[in-house]
Amino acid sequence: MGRVEGKVAIISGAARGQGRSHARLLAAEGADIIAIDICADIETNDYPLARPEDLDETARLVEKEGRSAYAAIVDVRDRNAVAQAVDAGVAEFGKLDIVVANAGIAPLTKGGPRQAFVDAVDVDLVGVLNLVHASLKHLTAGASIIATGSLAASLASQNTSGMDAGPGGAGYGFAKQVVAHYVNNLALQLAPEFIRVNAVHPTNVNTAMLHSAPMYAAFRPDLENPTREDAELTFPFLNAMPVPYVEPEDISEAVLYLASDAARYVTGQQLRIDAGGTIKAVAWSG
């Protein structure tokens, strides 16, 4: 028996990166997967997002694990489209047990347009709200909601990273802070129904979001056109453990735990998979 055997999970941002990793591991542990992703670029986000063939590959990997996949191209900023995809997935599988609100962008461009702030907030915060709220009517006792936050939720008010990521970076940090607060408050509301709500907060993760020109520039504002090698010299500075980044699978293991019955009494938690980034940046408060 897998740790989520017989459960159904919906995952946003599932076409690649952390979302694909979550889909693959949850499927390997027995869950059927509703996978959604925009599969298109957003103008202010200066690195390419996933494509339809990426979402198809996620579905293939789920099916390779012996589970079923329902995939839909959806922009999480569109509440009606999200609700339609949720309802269609539930019609396909008959229920919904796990919601993984993972879709995110990082339009980190110094001196970028103010629209980048709007887009970061709309995807990274409003997208979380849209998926969770569209899913709520399908959830019953034992269900688990998991939101992807970020180490940035801790750093946004600390000004310790030395990064200059423009309006998009400001929007990203704001969105992740509010996601953490939202998880805390929603968990309290749903606890009497035995529906759990938690967040995972990664540090840098080895995905296409991290390995992109805007991210390299944010980490190396001293260079005009920094390379991956230039940026990787500074990646470890965020963390207490001397590593540049963690792997998507490291986050997926935390998602799996929170999705499983092993975490049946775990709710309202901010689970940091951040190589000690938070404890390095934020003073102990007791």
TrEMBL record:
Recorded hits in CDD domains, A to Z, give: SDR_c (cd05233)
The answer to whether UniProt assigns keyword Heme to this entry is no
Q: Which SUPFAM superfamilies does the entry link to?
A: NAD(P)-binding Rossmann-fold domains (SSF51735)
Which Pfam families does the record cross-reference, listed alphabetically? adh_short_C2 (PF13561)
Question: Which range is the signal sequence, renumbered to this chain?
Answer: none
Q: Name one GO molecular function term.
A: oxidoreductase activity, acting on NAD(P)H, oxygen as acceptor
Q: Which UniProt keywords apply?
A: NAD, Oxidoreductase
Q: According to its UniProt record, which protein family does this protein belong to? A: Belongs to the short-chain dehydrogenases/reductases (SDR) family.
Its recorded name reads SDR family mycofactocin-dependent oxidoreductase
Organism of origin is Mycolicibacterium sphagni
